[in-house]
Amino acid sequence: METASLDIYFQSQTNAIKRELRGAGERLHNAELLLEAMRLENLELINEIKSLRAENAALRANNKQNKGSSLNG
């Protein structure tokens, strides 16, 4: 009888551990998905910054050219 009780106890503990591991696996998977989304968003922001820097450089060059024209003209 005692062996059967131990078997039930250990089976119950094993099932609880399996549930915990499944939950941890799901949380890990969700964290991985979140990290990938953040990485992609970061790449988009980097590209936007590069574009804005290029636009800023073009505007500065245009501004410098306009200042030079107004001084000479």
Give a concise summary.
The protein has 73 residues and is mainly alpha-helical.
Describe the 3D structure:
Keywords: Coiled coil. Residues 28-62 form a coiled coil. The protein has 1 helix and no strands. With 73 residues, it is an all-alpha fold. The longest helix has 71 residues, at 2-72. 0% of the residues are buried.
Oligomeric status of the shown chains? single chain
Report the helical percentage: over 70%
Q: What does the main sheet amount to?
A: none
Number of strands: 0
From the alpha carbons, calculate the radius of gyration and give it in angstroms.
31 Å
Unreliable stretches (pLDDT < 50, length at least 5) are none
Question: Helical segment tally?
Answer: 1
Category from helices, strands and their pairing? mainly alpha
